[in-house]
Design brief:
mainly beta, OB fold (Dihydrolipoamide Acetyltransferase, E2P), five-stranded mixed beta sheet, 3 helices, 10 strands, 48% strand, globular
């Protein structure tokens, strides 16, 4: 019953990890422009930008995923995505390649991923010697909630 699906992933670097995002979710990739700060926003919300008349909320994925990056903000990139009729920009360290994979090659997220991060990862893909964590966009763009376990 399960049908094989081919995926195209936009792969990117964040700290010392490689992540992937379905290219169907990616609208464009831009350099970091001037960002307007949004006061009282969660710490991962860097601010907002006006991108050709659209207000885009900018999320720093390093902060959201509790990773430490050494890359200066001006040298980073922003992946523009749209979800639920809103535009979001995901700040990443660097953009890699588009990777074509067979959906059957995806594995579940490893059990050793911290609980705080595991909800942001929908699966992993092994590309030669590296693991690529597939980003769960819906979880990333939803406001942080304290979950009880």
């Amino acid at each position: 019953m399960a049908e094989t699906t081919n995926l195209q992933l936009c792969s990117f670097q964040l700290a010392d990890a490689t992540f992937g995002l379905d290219t169907m979710l990616v609208q464009e990739i831009i350099k970091v422009p001037d960002i307007t700060k949004v006061y009282l926003a969660p710490k991962e919300i860097t601010g907002i930008i006006n991108l050709r008349g659209k207000i885009v909320t900018i999320i720093d994925l390093a902060i959201k995923l509790e990773l430490t990056t050494e890359v200066e903000m001006t040298n980073r990139k922003i992946i523009i995505v749209e979800s639920q009729d809103e535009h979001f920009g995901l700040v990443v360290d660097n953009i890699n390649d588009v990777i074509h994979i067979d959906g059957e090659e995806l594995d579940a997220a490893p059990s050793n991923v911290r609980v705080a991060q595991s909800r942001f990862i929908s699966g992993v893909f092994r590309d030669n010697e590296q693991l690529i964590a597939i980003l769960n966009l819906n979880e990333v763009i939803n406001p942080a909630e304290k979950k009880t376990e």
